[in-house]
Amino acid sequence: MRLPNAYIVQTANPQESFLVYGELNSRGFAAKGYRLEVPNLDNAGNALKNDLFMRLSGWLASQSLDKRIQIRYTRDADYRDILERYKEDTEQYAADLWSRKIRSENYDDFMRRIAERRLYREYVSVYFSRELRQFIGSDFIPEQEQDRRQFEREVTTAFEADRTELQQFLNQPVTPLDHIGLYKEYYRAVNKSAFDLDIDYEADFEADLAGIYRCGYAKTSSEPGAVSFHSDGYFHNIFTLHDFPKSDLTPFAGNRLLGNDIQNLTIAVNIEPLDTEKVIEQKQKHWRRVRADLLEEESEVAASAGLDELTEHIYRLGKGEDSPFRIEYVIHTWNKDAAELQSDSMILRQAATSMLTSLDSYELGLQSMHNFLKTLPGYSWYKRHDAALDCMHRPLAAMLPFSCSFVGKGAEGNILFGGDHCNLMTFSFFDGDTPQHTLCLGQTGSGKSVNFVSILSQAYYQFAKVVIIEEGGSYYNLTRIRGNEAQYIVIDPNANQTLNYFDTGGLPLTPGQFEFVTAFLTAMCGESSDLEVIQDRTALISPFVAAVYTDAYVEWRNRNREGLERAARMALSVEKLIPSMPIDRNTALDAWIELRDALAAPAESPDEARRKLQELYNSWTIRELNDYIIEDSEMLRNISYAYMAKSDMPYHSQLVEALRETSLLHLDRSDLNRVAARLAVYSVESGKGSLFDGETTVDLGRRWVHIELGKIAQSGAVLRNLVGIVINNLVMNQIINMPRGSAKLYLFEELARLLATVPGAAEIVKQSYAQLRKYKCVAVTITQSAAQMTQSGVGQIVMTQSKQFLFLRNTDAAELRLITNYVPLSEDAQQNIRNFPTPEHLPPGRKFSSFLLVAQRAGWPLCGTGRNYASSAILATAATSGRLHSRLERLMKELQAQNAGLPFAELLLRAMEIATVDNTLFAILDRIEKLGNEQIKSLVTDARIEFNNLIRKGTLV
User: Fold this and answer.
1) What b-and-e string marks burial along 360-391, b requiring 16 or more CB atoms within 10 Å of the CB?
2) Backbone phi and psi for residue 920, each to the nearest 5 degrees, phi listed first
3) Based on the number of CB atoms within 10 Å of its own CB, is 927 exposed (0-12), middle (13-18) or buried (19 or more)?
4) Pairing between strand 229-231 and 234-241?
5) Res 922 pLDDT > 60
6) How many CB atoms lie within 10 A of CB 477?
7) What is the pLDDT of residues 213-229, one digit of tens each?
8) SS3 at position 18
9) How far is CA 574 from CA 281, 579, 590, 741, 870, in A?
10) Which residues are CB-contacts of 261 (< 8 A; sequence separation ≥ 6)?
11) What is the pLDDT of residue 199?
């Protein structure tokens, strides 16, 4: 077979490089390829499909006669761009043992599945091709640099206009293929074994494409009735579309040809716009012939109906409602096994039959190879059209192969999962640097906790702070894995722990902190149906809060001269900076954060704004500082709290004592005594512990903070509410006190239970979703029911402020309809969510948890299905109850006794390895025992005993 002469013209900008077929003269033609980011249509509703279909139809109708177009659909198993980025991030950022282990397992697993050809990736490319005579005149001399540069500019300008038009019509990214991308597509088009090779296309690049034909097509052989020809170690079949379906086509009906798991498939649709006037002229001639036949045989009803249809068609062409095209629709599939190829071919034929059309094949190998040439990238100016079809723009748009594998955020995502169509996908909690608040919804047993154990294991390296609030201990093992970086806090009224609500968490004292403490103490006094009583208590408590804060500051300043000078320098800088701050960020806290971050920046290379802030901070003289300290302004007091230790903070007993001992005559003594008595219930003197009285004993400054609320579930509503309020304030202070550039995550596990446990949890969640984004903190909510959130009043803010959603199995149709008030879930998407399988009902070894990922973005929403095939390590970490949990706990105790000081992560991995071997061997022993006699059963019993002894001794480790 004679392959066309082709080469790549490399331009100064690699993105503008293009193909040339033939010689560089008026008889050749140029082609330029672009990759389309086709949105996933599996979960798209009719409205979105219709919109995209109309855009695609409009683009086809706008095409001029000076070019030809090729829509090229291909499949391969190449996810290297995603997996290599994932591997690089793992090696560069995932420093801890566990994250590196999980991410490495994921990488190895997907690379193994790719090697086994269990994954494939769909692409849609568009090639525009133009004859070179549009750009080359009679005086063109290829050897002259000036002529070549002028030629390249004109060609790239024309192709850029084509790309811009396509992108504007589709409102989707259209990415040019650079010289490497063009080389890669061409190489794979003619060397099918390249799909199985790890080729470095950049290193192997050759501009002259004649040098990459490795296949040996000259040795082809025909296989009548089974395959079209044999080459490059593969059997090949070539089909062409026989005709367009006669019935009305729904948008993207042609995707039925793609709804299969055939690994090796290419479809090329070569499109030639036709001159409408000439088509009308031809149709009118045909109309006159039909009319003449009808006049001779008036009884021919079919001919009469055909004439009416032809009349309507000519009318639509004349009005510009139809645009004519000539196309060739070529399908290529190949396989190393002839029987498998025949099976694949039958699948394609059946798909065509379901669309009321058929596929033509060719017995002669040379004829098949001639049609194969039509699938080459951008090769569309051949003269023969033996399989050409005439069609209009709308049916053509409906039949185009228009589907890409859903990859989520692709290489930009750092959380990796499998997909439901032999693909892989990624997502992230950030879009650039912008946090994407996330909501996860799913029924019990759908796999929410296991999914998030995997997610947090993969994304942990990204966060400087992770805070988890839950009831049930779903992340207890994951917290234990984090070791010294983690703080596990079980809120227990009977435990010896203190949450000091006066603690500012390393932040300046702010009006917000005053308001919080006052509201907290008012709530501590108990509920009242009389609003005036609540207001009176607030008014009474407020001056004592200010007084206690002032007393603690005075005591600190008298013995911390160095810290006081630092506070004075910062307070002076804050006062100077506030007038220049933006109107939406001009508080003392905002100014203090700006200064703090500027001072923390490297001194050798700060940006201009930070350099000025550093100069401002260092500009104050000792005299100015002393004068300011003597003045002792309120600002100095407030800023000083950022430099005070936990032991310097006021505490609950001091406030109670101040209430009891006040001598202010304008206050009613009985009211003071009543409030003091109510508050004294929570002081140490009451004998009920020190939950709110004293120095904060829990370390909320750790990188991983896990707060368990299960033990206060049976406490009174007032206490549960107080615990929730103070925890949230302390956590929020920690998050705000961290540099804004560092990423944080605040996770609410099983929100429905949290709302029931902590009466004020709704306000906590609302505050988190509304305020934390500007501190680069992602709020994540995991719950079973959107209805429960809505009833508590938190549903609207969570649903509207979330930018990313994970929907697991949910069979409640009413619940899904409620969700559509906030998230545009199509009927197809809702049906998919209802039909997700439950992991427990899947066969062993093939269990997975499905979820629908929906993320907001401009234009088309990011929407596709992921699958979590949880590894044994993830399952072990997520196991918090049941037989597996008990077995692992026992094994870890034995291992710990033999290997003192072994990190928990290592203990868990070894225990899971033993349990896996244990299960496998005992399963074998069970089968032997069932088949054997009494003597064999006795030997099996001895084997079980010996095996358990080996486990206890740690021999198997």
Assistant:
1) bbbeebebbbbbbbbbbbbbbbeeeeebebeb
2) -65, -50
3) exposed
4) antiparallel
5) no
6) 21
7) 765 543 444 444 567 78
8) strand
9) 81, 9, 9, 20, 51
10) 120, 422
11) 83
Domain ranges of the chain: 7-77+120-399, 433-483+698-869, 511-678, 881-953
List of residues 6+ apart from 432 with CB closer than 8 A? none
Measured CA to CA in angstroms, residue 772 lies from 455, 740, 751 at distances of 21, 10, 18
Instruction: Find the DSSP H helices in 849-933.
Output: 872-878, 882-898, 904-931
**CA 199 distance to own-chain centroid:** 28
Assigned token pair, 317: 């062409």
> What values do phi and psi take at 584, rounded to 5?
-90, 0
Q: Do residues 870 and 846 make contact, with C-beta atoms less than 8 angstroms apart?
A: no
**Interhelix angle 448-459/97-115, nearest 10 degrees:** 100
- Overall pTM > 0.70: yes
* CATH number assigned to the domain covering 433-483+698-869: 3.40.50.300
Q: Are 115 and 79 in contact (CB under 8 A)?
A: no
Which residues does residue 707 pair with via DSSP β-bridges, in sequence order? 469, 489
> How many residues does this entry show for the chain?
957
Strand partners, 235: 230, 335
Residue pointed to by tokens 């003192």: 900
Q: Which has the closest alpha carbon to 846: 837, 855, 834?
A: 837
At 947 the pLDDT is 62
Q: Tens digit of pLDDT for each residue in 747-761?
A: 998 887 787 777 777
Are residues 460 and 414 in contact, defined by beta-carbon separation less than 8 angstroms? no
- 3-class DSSP assignment, residue 199: coil
**Nearby residues of 120 by Cβ (< 8 Å), 6 or more positions away:** 75, 76, 77, 261, 263, 405, 422, 423
Structure tokens at 513: 């902190």
Each residue of 436-468: b (16+ CB within 10 Å) or e? bbbbbbbbeebbbbbbbbbbbbbbbbbbebbbb
Q: How far apart are CA 650 and CA 515, in angstroms?
A: 15
Q: How many CB atoms lie within 10 A of CB 23?
A: 11
928 pLDDT band (50/70/90 cuts)?
A: low
Q: What are phi and psi of 228, to 5 degrees?
A: -85, -45
CA distances 195 to 76, 115, 119, 219, 420, Å, are 6, 10, 12, 21, 22
Give the span between the Cα atoms of 434 and 425, in whole angstroms: 20
Secondary structure of residue 880 in the 3-state scheme: coil
The first and second tokens of residue 170, run together, are 């589709």
Name, in order, each residue with C-beta under 8 angstroms of 543's C-beta and a sequence gap of 6 or more: none
Q: Distances from the Cα of 653 to the Cαs of 139, 286, 357, 500, 616, in angstroms?
A: 97, 101, 85, 11, 40
Instruction: Please give the structure tokens belonging to residue 279.
Output: 């088509």
What is the enclosing helix (H) or strand (E) of 387? Answer: none
- Provide the token pair at 741: 């550039």
The residue ranking higher by pLDDT, 811 or 890, is 811
Query: Residue for token digits 């009808």?
Result: 294
Check if the beta carbon of residue 831 is closer than 8 Å to that of residue 809.
no
What DSSP element (H or E) covers 348? Answer: helix 338-354
Strands 744-748 and 777-783: parallel
**CA dist., res. 722 & res. 373, Å (int):** 74
